[in-house]
Design a protein that fits this description.
single chain, 481 residues, alpha/beta, Beta-Lactamase, Rossmann fold, Helicase, Ruva Protein, domain 3, 3 domains, five-stranded antiparallel sheet, five-stranded parallel sheet, 19 helices, elongated, binds adenosine-5'-diphosphate, binds magnesium ion, P-loop_NTPase, coiled coil, transcription, ATP-binding
Length: 481
């Protein structure tokens, strides 16, 4: 009985094996380390771990230690061990050959085989006992590794899915337009995305500058790294420096910990300096340093930090004019605008309006579960309007209408600010427009004639009956009657 017990020495070996298996390596790496432990602490001369591979329908070596020439391999024996799940032992001259199944929950998944010279004090039973323990541990390690791989695969799939969603959201398909201006923009984006040069996007507010900046990032090789936006006008000057460059603990009152700035957070990716024209002059030298040397220094920090970022800036201001007025550093301006992209206002590319309207209709109909559309006359009104707020204004106008209206929108459903005097004139002869402004016209006529209905009717070219009908229909209050 005493012989079958695992000795102190063997407990030590099992302990070493446990240590190796808890390192969190892959099963293959761990297997080799287990063989090395058996070599160092238990004097095996050769060791080999094989796993059953479903693809080749046989055992496959995952780790091997020492030389395994054909004559010592004894593949016939491992196969038997694998099939029967029972350990085998052979005496081969001065050495002993052990082959032990590795099991997971009763199922044999592989085999551990080794050669070892047994000393006079060693017993086969205690050796086998210990090897069974080692194999149980290997089985557990295998199962853990398998679970980890599955998890990892799941995470990776999830990550891929998220990146895809993001990329679709901001990919070039997200930039709608059929005007030559937009086609040209898409070409520029594709070209510049392949490079690392700094881009300056100019154009009025709402033309799509931020959208273009994202498109460049997601078309570039940095797409799997962060896209970090810094809105230079939204952050108070005093906070902007800390926000951009980070700070060390104790840099100022309240800095209890150190914090990375946006340039550090964007490592490997793209920094988008939105409204760069509002960057305070006092911070421009520090910004120039990042742009030029790709180096930053945290507030209260003592050493410089290298950053690898691509810089895209945008502004709706005339930066050249700011340079002339001494509000923007000339050297910084040239550094930022290596590749300038100008986005024309929507009123200069009217042919984009119908496709943008369709795009936003699709988006908001889906979001609000509606079926709203524009008739051609309503679309004409949208085409004529100068859109001072550009695509952003068009987007919110469509959204509001989708929420408020149902079915087909005609000019009378449109808010009056969309009608210029010019449009009103042009559309006056259209029946729908007459209807939409009829109420106003009737009130005007009534006022002109001191609310004498017969005179008002004459002025409007209507019979008294027709006028009465309309007054009721439009619920026009009649003064003095
Ligand atoms: N060509 C376009 N296609 C689709 N959506 C656009 C286009 N241009 C702008 N938009 C949308 O209009 C809104 C304003 O665009 P944004 O990029 O924020 O403008 P800017 O940064 O120039 O003020 C955003 O919702 C954006 O998605
Ligand atoms: Mg913007």
């Amino acid at each position: 009985m005493a012989k079958r017990e695992v000795s102190i020495k063997e407990i030590g070996i099992v302990n070493e094996v446990a240590k190796v298996l808890s390192r969190g390596q892959s099963f293959e790496e761990a297997s080799l380390d287990v063989l090395k432990v058996l070599y160092s602490f238990w004097n095996i001369s050769r060791g080999l771990i094989s796993l059953y591979d479903k693809n080749i329908k046989s055992l496959r070596v995952v780790a091997s230690f020492g030389s395994w020439k054909k004559e010592v391999k004894r593949e016939d024996i491992w196969d038997k061990v694998y099939k029967n799940g029972i350990p085998m032992f052979l005496s081969e001259g001065s050495e002993s050959f052990f082959s032990v199944p590795i099991k997971v929950g009763g199922e044999v998944i592989g085999v551990l085989s080794l050669y070892k010279e047994l000393g006079p004090k060693d017993s086969v039973e205690s050796a086998l006992e210990m090897l069974l323990i080692v194999c149980t541990m290997l089985g557990m390690a295998y199962k853990l590794d398998e679970r980890m791989q599955e998890q990892k695969k799941e995470w990776e799939e999830e990550k891929e899915e998220l990146t895809k969603v993001l990329q679709e959201k901001y990919s070039l398909e997200g930039i709608i337009g059929r005007s030559p201006a937009v086609k040209n923009l898409i070409e520029l984006i594709l070209k510049v995305a392949k490079t690392d040069v700094n881009v300056l996007i100019t154009g009025e507010s709402g033309v799509g500058k931020s959208l273009i900046a994202k498109a460049i990032h997601f078309q570039s090789s940095r797409k799997n790294r962060p896209f970090v936006t810094i809105n230079c006008s939204a952050i108070p000057e005093t906070l902007l420096e800390a926000e951009l460059f980070g700070y060390e603990r104790g840099a100022f009152t309240g800095a209890y910990t150190s914090k990375k700035g946006k340039f550090e957070l964007a490592e490997g990716g793209t920094v988008f300096l939105d409204e760069v024209g509002d960057m305070p002059l006092s911070l421009q030298p520090k910004l120039l340093r990042v742009v030029q040397e790709k180096e930053i220094e945290r507030l209260g920090g003592e050493h410089t930090i290298k950053v690898d970022v691509r810089i895209i800036s945008a502004t709706n201001k005339d930066l050249k004019k700011l340079v002339e007025d001494g509000l923007f550093r000339e050297d910084l301006y040239y550094r930022l605008s290596v590749f300038p992209i100008h986005v024309p206002p929507l009123r200069e590319r009217k042919e984009d309006i119908p496709v943008l309207v369709d795009h936003f209709l699709q988006l908001f109909n889906k979001r609000y579960n509606k079926k709203v559309g524009f008739d051609t006359r309503a679309m004409d009104v949208l085409m004529e309007y100068p859109w001072p707020g550009n695509v952003r204004e068009l987007e919110s106008t469509v959204e509001r209408l989708v929420i408020l209206k149902d079915g087909l929108i005609t000019p009378k459903d449109l808010p009056s600010y969309l009608f210029s005097e010019d449009t009103k004139e042009k559309l006056k002869n259209l029946p729908s427009f007459v209807e939409s402004t009829e109420r106003e016209e009737i009130i005007k006529a009534l006022e002109k004639t001191g609310y004498v209905k017969s005179r008002a009717a004459k002025l409007l070219g209507l019979t008294l009956r027709q006028l009465d009908y309309r007054i009721k229909k439009y619920r026009i209050p009649i003064k003095g009657s």
